[in-house]
Specification:
The structure holds two protein chains of two kinds. By secondary structure, chain A is α/β, with parallel strands linked by helices. Chain A is built from eleven helices and nine strands. Chain A has helices spanning 9-12, 23-31, 65-69, 80-89, 107-118, 130-136, 167-173, 184-188, 229-239, 257-268, 280-284, and strands spanning 20-21, 40-44, 61-62, 97-101, 124-127, 178-180, 212-213, 247-251, 273-277. In chain A, helix 5 (107-118) packs across helix 10. The longest helix of chain A is centred in the middle third of the chain and has 12 residues, at 107-118. Chain A is globular, with a radius of gyration of 19 Å. Chain B is an alpha+beta fold. In chain B, 48% of the residues lie in helices and 11% in strands. In chain B, strands 1-2-3-4 form a four-stranded antiparallel beta sheet. Chain B is globular, with a radius of gyration of 15 Å. Classes of the chains: A alpha/beta, B alpha+beta. Chains A and B meet through loops of A and helix 2, helix 4, helix 6 and helix 7 of B.
Chain lengths: 308, 159
């Protein structure tokens, strides 16, 4: 059964306030025993595969973006059977309320939430501010092993089309708004990977023509929480030039940072059609004969690719 | 200079070979736990280096900030100089810290010849690639590579 939604002034301004919970709210729910009795499943999803083991929110389970959610062979996500097995093993049932949190202002948590959404999991929420805020506030963490009872999760076929874009979709999308959430250096083509991050092998640098550069972190405040509706509107409607009702594609390097932006556009600003291009620059920057713009200008779609 | 790299496990210094054996004897989840132990065991920087972050170099290939440096000291027996390794990584990066801990325990105090003989793909021997993912293993390999390059450069200067 769905757990009650948090009511507060900040969230109420968002298009889908039920998609976020605050640290205060989660702490109260934990204290109430909502996690212990299985009404609420709290999931930690981090970049660092061992961070959960150093201490996690009491009762939280761990889902690793790479080993749990990605297929080991094909560059794709797990299928319905594997997802059902994973969810059930973590004590998640199809009607569970799931709250996800993680490190780095919720990059990987937002990514995990996006994958849950590919499988149509209905009630999945993000902890505003993530792991860092929880810890900064001195809230309880534990290294105790979480005991879960096996959930009841059906095999659901993944439905990619509404929220996931493939390279061909992006080519067909050209002329519609794109948001590039990488660093300015990656956008201009000065470099092909995040500053201080490993080179992941893109042969070309730059951005997809017409993409607006809005680095993901600008949607987050100092404490890792999402900025207010007003601030997000100034960013995406003002600076990026999106208009209500636009069909938007967001991308980054492998689709993790853009999941954070996808969440803001989809649930906080309420754009109906927002897709995350998870192939992102590690695909586009290696693909043959796709258009690329270098430099700080957005550029234009080559005439040969303009669709009527 | 003679190339010392030989891609086999029998060139591992004793301490490092023992660590590799310990990892290989475990199941995958236990290997991760052992890596976590190494992350807790990574020694703090000495005060003189804490006050001088500019003396450390960042290994940018690691996903989390990892800084390291090496120093060599005279061997009291008059033998080859011993290399000391120093690492700095935040507690929020236990995987990176864990591997730094493995290299510290396995290589600290050894000679240039011993360190340079460690195969570049030694991290693969820990049996963590599947659990950690190849992407994350790349940072580990880069850490070892950086140590070997620094040791090679320092020992050239001294010879």
């Amino acid at each position: 059964m769905s757990y009650p939604v948090e009511q507060n002034e900040k969230f109420a301004a968002y298009a889908n306030p039920e998609r976020l919970v605050s640290t205060e709210w989660l702490a109260a729910a934990v204290a109430d025993g909502a996690v212990a009795d299985g009404k609420l499943v709290v999931v930690e999803s981090d970049e660092d595969v061992l961070l959960y083991e150093t201490g996690h929110i009491p009762g939280a389970v761990k889902i690793d973006w790479h080993t749990d959610l990605n297929d080991e062979i094909t560059r794709d996500y797990v299928d319905g059977a594997a997802f059902a097995a994973l969810a059930a093993s973590k004590g998640i049932s199809r009607d569970s309320t799931v709250v996800i949190y993680g490190d780095k202002s919720n990059w990987w948590a937002a990514y995990a939430l996006w994958v849950f959404t590919l499988f149509g999991h209905e009630d999945v929420r993000l902890l505003d501010g993530g792991r860092d805020k929880w810890i900064a506030e001195g809230r309880e963490v534990t290294t105790d092993r979480t005991q879960t009872s096996v959930g009841d999760y059906p095999e659901v076929e993944r439905n990619d089309a509404p929220i996931r874009a493939f390279k061909e979709d992006v080519l067909a999308h050209l002329g519609n708004p794109l948001i590039d959430v990488r660093s300015p250096e990656e956008y201009t083509g000065q470099r092909t990977h995040m500053p201080a991050y490993p080179e992941e092998g893109a042969l070309r640098g730059g951005h997809i023509p017409t993409a607006a550069s809005i680095p993901w972190a600008r949607a987050a405040a100092e404490d890792g929480t999402y900025r207010s509706r007003e601030e997000l509107e100034a960013l995406y409607l003002g600076e990026a030039g999106l208009e209500p009702g636009d069909n938007v594609v967001a991308y980054c390097r492998i689709g993790e940072r853009s999941s954070h932006t996808w969440f803001a556009l989809k649930y906080l600003l309420g754009f109906d059609t927002v897709r995350n291009y998870d192939g992102s620059w590690t695909e586009w920057g290696n693909a043959v004969r796709v258009p690329i713009v270098k430099g700080a200008e957005r550029g234009s779609v080559p005439a040969s690719l303009v669709r009527n | 200079m003679r190339k010392l790299e030989v891609m086999s496990t029998n060139t591992l210094p004793t301490a490092l070979a023992e660590i590799v054996d310990d990892f290989q004897a475990l199941t995958e989840p236990d290997r991760l736990q052992l890596l976590l132990e190494f992350s807790k065991g990574l020694p703090e920087l000495p005060e003189r280096l804490k006050d001088h972050p500019e003396l450390l170099e960042q290994v940018v290939e690691c996903q989390s900030p990892l800084f390291l440096t090496i120093e060599s000291e005279k061997n009291p027996d008059g033998g080859a100089r011993a290399f000391r390794l120093y690492f700095k990584a935040p507690p929020e990066a236990p995987t990176t810290r864990g591997f730094a801990g493995v290299l510290h325990e396995g290589l600290d105090g050894l000679t240039a010849e011993e360190i340079l003989a460690v195969p570049d793909d030694m991290p693969e021997l820990l049996g963590l690639t599947r659990a950690i993912t190849p992407l994350r293993m790349r940072g580990m390999t880069a850490m070892l590579g950086r140590i070997k390059r620094k040791v090679a450069a320092a020992s050239r200067l001294e010879s």
